[in-house]
Amino acid sequence: MSAKRAFITGITGQDGSYLAELLLSKGYEVHGLIRRASTFNTSRIDHLYVDPHEPGAKLFLHYGDLSDGARLVSLLAHLQPDEVYNLAAQSHVRVSFDEPEHTGDTTGVGSVRMLEAVRMSGITTRFYQASSSEMFGATPPPQSETTAFHPRSPYGAAKVYSYWITKNYREAYDMFAVNGILFNHESPRRGETFLTRKVTRAVAAIKAGKQKHVYLGNLDAVRDWGYAAEYVEGMWRMLQADEPDDYVLATGTGYTVRDFVETSFAHAGLDWREHVRFDERYLRPAEVDALIGDASKARDKLGWVPEVDPMALARLMVDADIEELACEGRPWIDTVRLGSWGTKAAVPA
Ligand code: NDP
Ligand code: GDR
């Protein structure tokens, strides 16, 4: 039997890089959509790339954009993937208030362009949509697959559209299309302007004497932070199920931003109070106060159980950023893998 073929949008992002790694390790041929940029934007997947002229090449990259529907149709018709993972999005909640229209076009309408591309190309494939806990917004925790949505940002509203249009294509066209409703998940590959990575990079720089302070916004928000490498395993499991369905992935634990900050600084032997300053520019016009997920459906139906808890994750990320700084900016590619699912993890206790 020939290798399964997957197509990933957002392959250059945090999740795309872990997912590509996972699928390659399972013997898939992986195709990724990348945006043309004037600078290189593939640093998270460079370690996976083999020149396509080489016989062992299993990862192939194609230029395109979620705003270009015709390109998506022709790519899918040409590639005929068995599985499609739609991870591309303008994914920053704060930025979505600055760029609401662009966020709607990419994070919302981009998903229907992908679904239409599947339909119009006439291929039979399984489709994963990267839905988000931000859709729950103001609805208090615990949040599960049956919790009402109340988005609090242009990003959250766009993701609600994508969620429903994915469900609609499942019902209308009998497509194997699923929503993974993922709570925050982080890693050493997390974008530098998200809270966790901003903090752990600052800890490393402060520890090294390169920086004195870091400026943050709301410290009271509660989040359910998991480890991204474990979450991509859950995405894959959703597409291997007998029937298409929607699943929450979360650790089920809630910590405040302050908790994450305190643990990260303490891990490096620093007192956060001496280094964290407030800047109102990091507040959002509307905040999501508390997200704590109930992932019991994914546990029962997919056997998915996360192993890295949020405070272990904070320590893991601090260690990675300290190491990256010591290597003078050389990208720190973590090989920490799912304890019982792959390479044994070297997760700090
Ligand atoms: P990132 O921000 O790290 O990656 C986003 C990816 O989308 C990048 O590859 C980016 O490309 C690509 N992209 C952005 N706009 C376009 C476009 N118009 N056309 C094509 N590609 C585009 O996100 P994550 O990896 O953290 O998240 C993956 C997905 O999961 C996103 O949809 C996100 O909204 C969602 N999600 C994430 C959660 C998390 O906690 N990480 C939780 C729940 C949902 P480029 O590199 O060129 O910028
Ligand atoms: P979030 O992640 O909005 O939950 O969306 P982010 O890390 O940006 O914020 C988490 C919480 O920290 C507070 N905060 C700050 N946030 C940032 N970025 N920078 C700061 O300086 C700062 N200070 C305090 C925020 O107010 C917020 O409460 C992420 C994204 O990955 C989405 O794509 C994804 O869908 C959701 O997680 C689930």
Within the largest sheet, what's the order of strands?
3-2-1-4-5-6-11
Q: Measured on Cα atoms, how large is the radius of gyration? A: 20 Å
Mean pLDDT level: 94
CATH fourth-tier homologous superfamily of one domain: NAD(P)-binding Rossmann-like Domain
**Topology as a string of helices (H) and strands (E):** EHEEHEHHEHEEHEEEHEEHEHH
CATH class of one domain: Alpha Beta
* CA distance, first residue to last residue: 42 Å
Helix content: 25-40%
Total helical segments: 10
- In the predicted model, the low-confidence regions spanning at least 5 consecutive residues are 336-349
Biggest β-sheet description: 7 strands, parallel
Q: Would you identify the CATH architecture of one domain?
A: 3-Layer(aba) Sandwich
EC number: 4.2.1.47
Function: Catalyzes the conversion of GDP-D-mannose to GDP-4-dehydro-6-deoxy-D-mannose.
Enzyme class: lyase
Catalytic activity: GDP-alpha-D-mannose = GDP-4-dehydro-alpha-D-rhamnose + H2O
Structure description:
Helix 2 packs parallel to helix 4. It contains 10 helices and 13 strands. Residues 336-349 have low confidence and may be disordered. It has a domain at 5-188 and 226-252 and 289-308: NAD(P)-binding Rossmann-like Domain (Rossmann fold, 3-Layer(aba) Sandwich), CATH 3.40.50. It starts with a strand and ends in a 23-residue tail after the last helix. Helix content is 38%, strand content 15%. Its EC number is 4.2.1.47. This is GDP-mannose 4,6-dehydratase. Residues 7-315 form the NAD(P)-binding domain. Its cofactor is NADP(+).
